[in-house]
Design goal:
Elements: E1 13-20, E2 74-79, E3 92-99, E4 104-108, E5 114-121, E6 123-129, E7 139-145, E8 149-152, E9 157-162, E10 168-173, H1 182-187, E11 188-196, H2 210-213, E12 218-221, H3 226-239, E13 246-250, H4 254-262, E14 269-273
Parallel strand pairs: 10-11, 11-12, 13-14
Antiparallel strand pairs: 1-3, 1-5, 2-3, 4-9, 5-8, 6-7, 6-9
Bound molecules: 2-acetamido-2-deoxy-beta-D-glucopyranose.
The site of 2-acetamido-2-deoxy-beta-D-glucopyranose has 4 residues, from loops.
Disulfide bonds: 31-46
Family: Belongs to the germin family.
InterPro entries: Cupin_1 (IPR006045), Germin (IPR001929), NAD(P)-bd_dom_sf (IPR036291), RmlC-like_jellyroll (IPR014710), RmlC_Cupin_sf (IPR011051)
Length: 281
């Protein structure tokens, strides 16, 4: 009956980007893609306007983390006219990219499109190279953090990689089920420490790829620290505004909480408000 407790570790960098290349003078309000048409034009053929609904302009799922367990360590969730019919002929598209700590989106270009990138989470090193000009091929690149945006001008070769690798001196891992700690080891800087505060019943997995292995990194474990240490830790967290996602339950609902815990039906840690002094946020 392991409850799954996940501490927000800046493990993945997450960006959204969109590319643009459009018809300068459309002849109608929209040309929603008709996926069933056999006609091949510049884009999909247009669906009859009277059959178009709001859902043709709608896409959901960009909040979903995509698996990065592949060779590049990156996963691109594309939102193009292939998946969002209302985008047809508008010349814009969007995507979500998830990057594991070591991931690289290798240099590539989109000949007809410019691209703007927004970092939603983590740190990313991104840049582009100019065409062969009198100054040679110039590199314009920058380390980006959450909230930053960066633009790649039309057709130029560009790249991104997750710059979180080797950037953390310590990580507290509270995941109490068996998991792969390889990406976390990549995140540690030399002499960094991974502290296991959760105690999985099954063995942890670690593939010692070179840079997750070198640099005198260490893995340590800890159990509950006793009342005094716990109080100190909570005071420290409060002072520095370090908070956790919890589900607050009152004392009279404790049996219900135990049942839900047994069923694995709790996303975060339950906190019991014994004195009824707290109100749920
Ligand atoms: C990308 O993520 C999706 C959703 O997690 C997954 O189904 C797909 O296999 C992933 N693709 C790659 C190449 O890893």
């Amino acid at each position: 009956m392991a409850a799954r407790i996940i501490l927000g570790v800046a493990l993945l960098a997450l960006v959204s980007s969109h590319a643009s290349a459009s018809d300068p003078s459309p002849l109608q309000d929209f040309c929603v893609a008709d996926y069933d048409s056999n006609v091949f034009v510049n884009g999909f053929a247009c669906k009859k306007p009277k059959d178009v609904t709001a859902d043709d302009f709608y896409f959901t799922g960009l909040d979903q983390t995509a698996s990065t367990a592949n060779r590049l360590g990156a996963n691109i969730t594309l939102v193009t006219a292939n998946r969002l019919p209302g985008l047809n002929t508008l010349g814009v598209a969007m995507s979500r990219v998830d990057y594991a700590p070591f991931a690289l989106n290798p240099p590539h270009s989109h000949p007809h499109a410019s691209e703007i990138l927004h970092v939603a989470e983590g740190t990313l090193y991104a840049g582009f190279v100019t065409s062969n000009t009198a100054q040679g091929n110039r590199l314009f690149a920058k380390k980006l953090k959450k909230g930053d945006a960066f633009v790649f001008p039309q057709g130029l070769i560009h790249f991104q990689f997750n710059a979180a690798m080797g950037s953390m001196d310590g990580i507290i891992d509270t995941v109490s089920v068996a998991h792969d700690i390889t990406p976390l080891m990549f995140l540690l800087e030399p002499r960094g420490k991974l502290i296991m505060a959760g105690a999985p019943a099954k063995p942890l997995h670690w593939t010692p790829f070179l840079s997750s292995w070198v640099g005198e990194k260490s893995v340590a474990g800890t159990c509950a620290g006793g009342v005094k240490d716990t109080q100190e830790m909570i005071d420290f967290a409060a002072e520095h505004n370090i908070a956790a996602d919890i589900e607050l339950v009152s004392m009279d609902r404790v049996n219900e909480a135990m049942e839900r815990l047994g069923k694995g039906d709790v996303r975060y840690r339950f906190v019991i408000d014994i004195g009824n002094t707290l109100t749920a946020a």
